[in-house]
Every structure is written in structure tokens, then in C-alpha cells.
Design goal:
- This is VOC family protein.
- It comes from Halobacillus litoralis.
- This protein is an alpha/beta fold and 128 residues long.
- 27% of the residues lie in helices and 36% in strands.
- It has helices at residues 14-25, 69-80, 116-126, and strands at 5-11, 31-34, 37-43, 46-52, 62-65, 87-89, 95-101, 107-113.
- The strands form two sheets. The chain has a four-stranded mixed β-sheet with strand order 1-4-3-2, covered by helices on one side. It has a four-stranded mixed β-sheet with strand order 5-8-7-6.
- A hairpin with a 5-residue loop joins β6 (87-89) and β7 (95-101).
- The chain starts with a strand and ends with a helix.
- The model has no long low-confidence stretch (mean pLDDT 92).
Length: 128
């Protein structure tokens, strides 16, 4: 039975990476098991692990669902000084999405459901 997911990305300077990801995720790490490694539980059951090391080429993107993609993008551009990324949408895909890279080349992105009823149902499943 599957019940949790972790995704690990690497940055060459953990303190700098931790500060950047704290801004991205809006909180401090949930778990620091040892030197050179921090973890956030992004949503219940999904852990983002940040490790000190050489970033993997072309890693990611890992994408996080949000309820307002444009507002999230605007905040990230302002707070993290990332380049304004394009938001994509296709008729056959139930979400719109945008992708960018962190300062170390790791792929990161966000997506938003077009159908707000579906979004609400998914949120209810997650937080019931």
C-alpha cells in the first residue's frame, strides 16, 4: 500500500538553499535529521527533501498545486526574484501550469485546476 511520497533535490550550499525554499514554501523545515539535509512536509504525505550536494542535471520539475497560479507566480517573482514564467494550458489537460528553475537549476513548478469544483473535491480529500 502506497501512502507517502518524497522528492529530493540538491543544492551546493544548504543554508542558502534552505532560505530560498523557506520563502518558496512559506515555512521553515519540518524535519532536520542530520547535517546537510532538511525536509518539509509540503502537504500531508508529500515530503520535499533538500540535500547538500551537486544538483542533478535536468531534475524535475516537481510541481505543487495551488488555488491561484497567477498570484503565486507574482509573489514568487517579487519575493524570490525569479524570472516571470509562462503559464500554459491545453484544452485536454485539467490544469494550467508554469515551470521555472531554482537558482541551482532544479525544475520547480505550480499548477491550478481549471474546474474549481474538482479542486475543492481534491482539497476535501486531502484535509478530511
Amino acid at each position: 500500500m502506497l501512502f507517502e511520497v518524497t522528492n529530493q533535490i540538491r543544492v551546493p550550499d544548504l543554508l542558502e538553499g534552505q532560505q530560498w525554499y523557506e520563502k518558496l514554501l512559506g515555512k521553515k523545515p519540518d524535519f532536520i535529521p542530520h547535517e546537510g539535509f532538511v525536509e518539509w512536509e509540503v502537504i500531508p504525505g508529500f515530503w520535499l527533501q533538500l540535500a547538500e550536494g551537486t544538483p542533478s542535471k535536468n531534475s524535475g520539475p516537481f510541481r505543487i498545486g495551488v488555488t491561484d497560479l497567477e498570484a503565486t507566480r507574482d509573489l514568487l517573482v517579487q519575493e524570490l526574484n525569479i524570472a516571470r514564467f509562462e503559464i500554459h494550458s491545453r484544452e485536454e489537460v485539467p490544469v494550467k501550469w508554469g515551470t521555472f528553475v531554482d537558482p541551482w537549476g532544479n525544475g520547480v513548478g505550480f499548477y491550478e485546476y481549471h474546474d474549481k469544483k474538482e479542486e475543492e473535491e481534491r482539497l476535501n480529500l486531502l484535509y478530511k
